[in-house]
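To whoever is on call:

I kicked off a structure prediction for a single chain this morning and the downstream step that reads the tokens threw a length-mismatch warning. I double-checked the sequence; it's 235 residues and nothing unusual in it as far as I can see. Pasting both halves so you can look.
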Amino acid sequence: MPDQSLSDRGLWVRRSGSGDRVLVLLHGMGANGAVWSRLLPILDSRWSGRVLVPDLRGHGRSIRQGPYGIDTHAADIAALIAGEAARSVILVGHSFGGAVAALAASGRFGLSAQHVIAIGVKIRWSEDEIARAQEMAQRPARSFSTREEAIERYLKVSGLSGLADPASEAAAEGIVGGPGAWRVAMDPGAFAAVGPSVPAVLRSCAAPLHLAAGENDPMVTLDDMRAIDPAAVTF
């Protein structure tokens, strides 16, 4: 079981392992760090170093305080790592977390990373998609009368419907509240981070950037990824 605590900037962080090599795992928009829980036992035997798994600002158990721009998320992650006395850092991010990882390693926030691995990052955003995200950021949080309804909503918002077991830890950590007043843990305002050019964010990465996605990922194509990383792969 990893140690869990709040960072100086209010991020809920799961920590495991030891040493001065640090691997940071960043979740996607709407999710939380628990989505990596099935990977952690594998890393215990295959990674010689520490593992940090934060909930991004406005997600999971982390602080619900804006602004939620991608620059703020990148600064949060850089500050978290700055307090870890790391000799080497590898950032792995899924979806929005991959974009945050790339920006955090841009050199703008005082962080030097050895590698950034970004998985399933949505590279192309239409004006309508950006407008919808900004509109969602203005909505109040919805309450649900049952825990099951709240989990169903969480899985939809995080893109985990059909992928995560509703009875799993990852699902349970995606909601808060109690009987008659359950809600998704994510602050809807966090959708305000959608908007900046994703290709520009990815290209800002000063570390070697590795892009990948599932071969059936509906959010990104291999051609889109290879326009930024010629060695990008699907799996």
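Update from on-call: the warning came from a stale cache, not from the record. Cleared it. Sanity check on the structure: The beta strands are 3-6, 12-17, 21-26, 50-54, 88-94, 115-119, 175-176, 183-184, 209-213, 233-234.
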